[in-house]
Design a protein that fits this description.
Elements: H1 3-30, E1 39-47, H2 54-73, E2 77-78, E3 81-91, H3 96-109, E4 113-116, H4 120-133, E5 136-139, E6 155-157, H5 162-176, E7 181-186, H6 190-205, E8 209-215, H7 224-231, E9 237-241, H8 244-256, E10 262-264, H9 272-278, E11 286-289, H10 300-311, H11 319-336, H12 341-349, E12 353-354, E13 359-360, E14 374-379, E15 382-385
Parallel strand pairs: 1-3, 1-4, 4-5, 5-6, 7-8, 7-9, 9-10
Antiparallel strand pairs: 2-3, 11-14, 12-13, 14-15
Helix pairs in contact: 2-11, 3-4, 5-6, 8-9, 11-12
InterPro entries: Leu-bd, Leu_Ile_Val-bd, Peripla_BP_I
Organism: Vogesella indigofera (Pseudomonas indigofera)
Protein name: Branched-chain amino acid transport system substrate-binding protein
């Protein structure tokens, strides 16, 4: 037989065999199990992942990741289909302009919900885009009252606001610390300035006097000029509205100038990073948290164990809150049997959930009900609670 003809016959046979073998594979694909047809539900997580607030942002993002991983382990189904939650993490750099760019990317990606943003200055402008797109947004750390004063029905927070913090801090400063002459500094951000305004107003209402009001920025490192100006007013307490990255150097420069006034901040100061930056000059400082102390959070111990095992690190501040925020979204989806915001959004407002941080339910404007504020004092490089938490902002807290 002609060898060339033999090769042609063999090639034809191989081609026929390949075609025959392909048919069962196509049939197998057509009958793939339902698991291969799972629906991916995207959850946006927006935080500063670079820059001076990255330690806060990574912590908050970890809380979202952990909640999503636990939900995936449950093998949930929605509307008859198995679902898998995918967290899309974006770096908003705590910058309002970048935050709106992140928000648009989330909208374009078709996320079912957004947990964040970390800061008020980033969250408020971003929230407008989520509202226009009908995407549910739950914040675990945004404390500016303006966040829920916009009238959006898709915007929620699971933490107390700055009005509550300002009132609690001012009352403690005037009535407990007996500080009557008080100076106020803020970083001109939505968070810092709003908090300082609320604190100053509450201080005067409690009988104190604001002897000096000064301003800086959230990237400043030299505060000597404004502190020199304040020193001449002989304040008994200096309040700072801003974050730990500036508060640490600020208190060190206070002591260098011989200012002995008590130093006080809010949740932006209540961190291990502040204690590290301030060193011994931070001893005796006061700060608040817009929530219960970790000792009184009903689920903190178990959550802390899981967090350390998963991320091999310590909780900074907001991971318990973003974890709970993510659980709120997923719980609402379960009750609505859908990951479509149009279908599950109404269930978010009806939430009644026992979270790591405490009971979670919402006011009609999206604020958490019975928001708690706790006060702390820095002792031996550690923050220790000094006042019993209370849900009433007019209480001593």
């Amino acid at each position: 037989m002609n060898p060339y003809r033999l090769s042609a016959i063999a090639a034809a046979a191989l081609t026929l065999a390949a075609c025959n073998n392909a048919e069962p594979q196509q049939d197998a694909a057509a009958s793939a199990p339902a698991a291969a047809q799972e629906h991916v539900v995207k959850i946006g997580s927006a935080n500063p992942l670079t820059g001076p607030f990255a330690h806060w942002g990574r912590d908050a993002d970890n809380g979202v990741q952990l909640a999503a991983e636990e939900a995936n382990a449950e093998k949930l189904t929605l509307d008859g289909k198995p679902v898998r939650f995918e967290v899309i993490s974006e770096d908003d750099q705590a910058d309002p302009k970048v935050a709106t760019q992140v928000a648009q990317r989330f909208v374009d990606a078709g996320v079912a919900a957004v947990i964040g943003h970390l800061t008020s200055g980033a969250a408020i402008p971003a929230s407008r885009l989520y509202n226009d797109a009908g995407i549910t947004m739950i914040a675990g750390s945004v404390t500016s009252p303006k966040f829920t004063e916009q009238g959006y029905n898709n915007t929620f927070r699971i933490i107390a606001n700055d009005l509550q913090q300002g009132q609690a801090l001012a009352k403690y400063a005037v009535t407990e610390l007996k500080s009557k002459r008080i100076a106020v500094i803020d970083d001109r951000t939505t968070y810092g300035q709003g908090l300082a305004d609320d604190f100053a107003k509450a201080t005067e209402a409690a009988g104190g006097t604001i002897v000096k009001r000064e301003y800086t920025t959230n990237s400043a490192t030299d505060f000597m000029a404004i502190l020199t100006s304040i020193k001449g007013e002989k304040p008994e307490l200096i309040f700072y509205g801003g974050m730990d990255a500036q508060a640490g150097p600020l208190v060190k420069q206070m002591r260098k100038l011989g200012i002995t006034a008590v130093f006080m901040g809010a949740d932006g100061v209540n961190t291990a990073e502040f204690a590290k930056l301030a060193g011994k000059d931070g001893e005796g400082a006061y700060a608040s948290s817009a929530g219960a102390s970790k000792e009184l959070m009903p689920g903190y111990t178990a959550f802390n164990t899981k967090y350390k095992a998963r991320f091999n690190g310590e909780i900074q501040a907001y991971a318990p809150y973003t974890y709970d925020a993510t659980r709120v979204v997923i719980d609402a989806m379960k009750r609505a049997n859908s990951a479509d915001p149009k279908k599950y959004l109404a269930e978010v407002g009806k939430t009644s959930l026992q979270g790591v941080t405490g009971p979670i339910a919402f006011e009609s404007n999206g604020d958490i009900k019975n928001g708690t504020v706790t006060l702390y004092r820095l002792e031996g490089g550690k923050w220790a609670g000094v006042a019993k938490p209370a849900s009433d902002a007019s209480a001593a807290q």
